[in-house]
Amino acid sequence: DAVERTLILVKPDAVRRRLIGEILRRIEAKGYQPIAAELRIPAEEELAAHYAEHEGKPFYQPLVDFMLSGPVLAVVAEGQGVIPGFRSLAGATNPTDAAPGTIRGDLGRDWGLKVQQNLVHGSDSVESAQREIAIWFPNL
Ligand code: DAT
Ligand code: MG
Known binder of ligand: residue 40? Predict the structure, then answer.
């Protein structure tokens, strides 16, 4: 696999649940190298750009509101095949469907939660990763 970079977001639910360390531990244990990180409440414009592909869908506004509900840890990680590799560490979008051994499968925990409360985001392609890294880390 090529060495590539991906954009990871540790979402507000994970930050509130003190899961930053556990999630970074899994990323590093897999051999991926964090090269930039920032913990803060995002700007609404950043989220609008980040989630542009979902604009107009019924879950779009609840998703944006949730992402504004507290600090998010944005991380750029580098490694061989890290784009599909982190998606595989994260597990299926809906934690209810996510396999054991994945972040969402192991830590999703509460079946009453909404789908957007799925702990992490990871870029889904080389193009998405480039686009998303430019949104969250314009100086990288
Ligand atoms: P992923 O985060 O696995 O890339 P996605 O890009 O399809 O998933 O969707 C972005 C986020 O939107 C996802 O993390 C949670 C939320 N979401 C997706 N599908 C949803 C749905 N059917 N109902 C509610 N929220 C949803
Ligand atoms: Mg996605």
Answer: no
For residues 63 and 114, the answer to whether their CB atoms sit within 8 Å is no
Give pLDDT tens digits for 128-137.
999 999 999 9
What domains sit in the chain, N to C, each tagged with a CATH number?
3-136 (3.30.70.141)
- Any alpha helices (H) in 30-125, and if so which ranges? 44-50, 60-67, 82-90, 103-107
Out of 15, 121, 122, 133, pick the active-site residue. Answer: 121
What is the rounded CA–CA span in Å between residue 27 and residue 70? 22
pLDDT tier at 103 (50, 70, 90 boundaries)? very high
- Alpha-carbon gap, residue 97 to 81, rounded angstroms: 23
Q: Whose CA is nearest to atom 15 of ligand 1?
A: 116
What are the pocket residues of ligand 1 if the criterion is a CB atom closer than 6 Å to any ligand atom?
A: 54, 59, 63, 93, 115-116, 118, 121, 124
> Can you give the C-alpha Rg of the chain in angstroms?
14
For the stretch 3-31, pLDDT in tens is 999 999 999 999 999 999 999 999 999 99
ipTM above threshold 0.90: yes
Q: Whose CA is nearest to atom 1 of ligand 1?
A: 93
